[in-house]
Design a protein that fits this description.
Number of helices: 17
Number of domains: 1
CATH topology: Growth Hormone, Chain: A
Largest sheet: none
Structural class: mainly alpha
Number of strands: 0
Shape: globular
Order of helices and strands: HHHHHHHHHHHHHHHHH
Length: 405
């Protein structure tokens, strides 16, 4: 009797929450230390190390940007569950192989292949977006996000501790195992009542946007996702190297880097559901604009950081801003996109996120190599300001009031 009272979309949400958690924990357990792992593969000068680190981070997203629309079209015909299984199994294999890399180009190549099979989190959003009642979309998307950021919270700390003792390969093996568990969870507990699009139906970009009332807003959310990812991932190739510099190469650098990497996750975990609920009441556009303004205000002072402690405080504040960014863009697209094309809209969004995740690390690598690590934060501040302008212009073009709900 009790089981029948729980809607299937809620059961799916919690199964996908675990999958998001496994994805976030596994990735964050290994990725913050990727530059340190690469530094063990050769005696590279600073510019070369930052370049290889940027390529290693960007390669997975480069291939993801290319294939995401193809997976999105397939999802509209086969359902989101097969795409979730494809992503989870693909990352199980590729993460394990990354740990077996013997040189930097092998590592970069495996991560490029991984990008072709990734996309678990975006498919989880798309599945839930197609099922959740409109009045609960903000809270539900916020809750789903806590799975990913909760994993990102504990992943770097555990990964930093294990890396300091056993080396940088073990976290990749654990990542692979966690994605294996996510595969099982998705296969056993996610049930999708899917109605496929007929092959005769149009599946182009124009058709995907045809039923959307506020097209400029949805396009702005997609561009915003790209810029958010560019800003948030720009620090990835340099965070452990920057912490190493601040600590003057003394102490457990991997563990401290893990804590610094985890701090935004703590803040996002605490605030994402609350901001999601608030967005349901006052309008998601207000939350998004506030998040962008706070991001710009917090990123800029990072340029002047001289201690790990201050960097940690600012990283925590960025986590609060992050809770008002990607989850809110997902919510806006959920409310605006028609059910028949939601997977395609989310796949385009994933492609642009992936492009952002290529642009951010590569720009950061160039800036850090040519100038210094801290100049990356000035670059990130500029990206946030551009994002703010794009969102404001889109809402004005579609006549959506920014001061009303």
């Amino acid at each position: 009797m009790t089981k029948s009272k729980t809607p299937q979309w809620q059961k799916n949400m919690w199964a996908l929450w675990f999958g998001n958690f496994a994805t976030g924990a596994g990735a964050s357990m290994s990725l913050p230390f990727l530059p340190l792992f690469i530094s063990e593969m050769g005696n590279f000068p600073k510019w070369q190390l930052t370049l290889y680190s940027g390529l290693a981070f960007a390669s997975v997203f480069l291939s993801q940007a290319v294939v995401s629309p193809l997976w999105g079209n397939l999802a509209d015909r086969t359902g989101r569950k097969p795409m979730l299984l494809r992503a989870a199994i693909g990352m199980t294999v590729s993460a394990t192989l990354t740990g077996l890399s013997t040189n930097v180009w092998m590592l970069i190549s495996i991560r490029f292949i991984q990008g072709m099979f990734s996309g678990y989190i975006n498919n989880a959003y798309a599945l839930i977006a197609s099922e959740v009642p409109a009045g609960q979309s903000g809270r539900t998307m916020g809750t789903l996000t806590t799975g990913n950021v909760g994993g990102q919270l504990i992943g770097p700390i555990i990964g930093g501790y294990l890396s300091g003792i056993f080396g940088f390969r073990l976290p990749f093996y654990i990542f692979g195992f966690m994605m294996f568990l996510a595969s099982l969870s998705t296969w056993l507990f996610v049930k999708e009542d899917f109605k496929p699009i007929k092959r005769a139906a149009k599946t182009g970009i124009k058709d995907a946007f045809s039923g959307i009332a506020h097209k400029h807003v949805v396009v702005a959310m997609i561009i915003s996702s790209m810029l958010i990812m560019a800003a948030t991932t720009s620090i990835n190739p340099i965070i452990s190297l920057f912490v190493k510099e601040l600590m003057h190469n003394h102490g457990n650098i991997a563990f401290v880097s893990g804590v610094i990497a985890a701090l935004p996750g703590i803040a996002t975990l605490l605030t994402a559901p609350r901001l999601g609920r608030l967005g349901d009441h006052i309008g998601p556009e207000k939350i998004l604009l506030a998040g962008l303004i706070v991001s710009g205000v917090v990123y800029f002072p990072m340029f002047f950081v001289t201690t790990v402690g201050i960097l940690g405080v600012l990283r925590f504040l960025i986590g609060i801003a992050n809770a008002a960014l990607l989850p809110i863009t997902q919510t806006v697209m959920t409310l605006e996109a028609p059910a028949r094309s939601v997977s395609r809209i989310f796949s385009y969004n994933q492609s642009f996120q992936a492009i952002g995740a290529v642009i951010g690390p590569m720009l950061a690598s160039v800036v850090a190599g040519a100038l210094d690590y801290r100049y990356v934060f000035l670059m990130t501040t500029i990206l946030v300001l551009i994002n703010l302008i794009v969102v404001v212009i889109a809402y004005r073009k579609d006549g959506v009031k920014l001061k009303g709900s």
